[in-house]
Design brief:
Layout: E1 2-14, H1 15-19, H2 24-27, E2 38-50, E3 53-57, H3 67-73, H4 80-86, E4 96-98, H5 104-107, E5 111-114, E6 117-120, E7 126-130, H6 131-138, H7 150-153, H8 155-160, E8 163-166, E9 170-173, E10 176-180, E11 189-195, E12 198-202, H9 225-242, E13 245-247, E14 256-258, H10 259-262
Parallel strand pairs: 3-4, 4-7, 7-8, 12-13
Antiparallel strand pairs: 1-2, 2-3, 5-6, 9-10, 10-11, 11-12, 13-14
Length: 266
Amino acid sequence: MKLSLVSAGHYWTDAGAFFGVLPWFIWHDKVETDDRQRLKMNLNLLLIQTEGRNILVDTGIGNRLGKRRCEIYNPSEFELVQNLEALGVKASELTDVILTHLHFDHAGGVVSEADGTDFLTFPEAVFHIQQSEWQMAENPDKLNKAAYQFEHQLSLLARAGRLHLIDGEVEIAPGVWVRKTGGHSVGMQIVEVLADSVPYIYAGDIIPTRFHLPMAITSSYDVCREDTYKAKQMIYDRLIQGNGFLLLDHDTSAWQLPIAEILPHL
């Protein structure tokens, strides 16, 4: 089994909202922000290669963000396909895509555009999504309405019939599990990989950066802080038990943290 970091580029988001309950005086001199108090966010994706399968976790923003959202988030070029090819994997060779959740910066790359035509970026892949997340994206309530763009980002996937909707904990491939946590979104799921008997956990937006390592620090974007807290506890318990590693999806300076480096923050 081989695990690789794949960059899908970066974007900028409101720093105050992203850090949530973490006070400004703790983070303001430790991160780069622009003149609009936006924080640079990496799009760190995970490629898992195992037993003839090429499994990608999340897809980044893509290249179809509307003008208004481009003004808000100032995204980089969509670099995912080129960066996968640099690792020896063509877009058509992906067998699976696991989406931790369906917000634009994680599911935007499901569909790409070229010469005015939209198409599935990874046409041969099966997409593994929690059923509750898909249902919320398709019919969001008032709290979640602004968080999803189903017709723009996901309707083509629905018509292609390449969905694997799941509920709870599922082993996607030998040694590769998804576990539903909720917290950041209704159907948020994390990915746990057992490689050489060592657990690696891609926590997505449950723990997006090193600043979110402490149990009580959550983003303002989380729909349920209590569930995020419980998810963190579960993640840390599993990493402690297996002396494992945490993978950070949005950090600009850290990707893989051993549990020994995390413990002082808890």
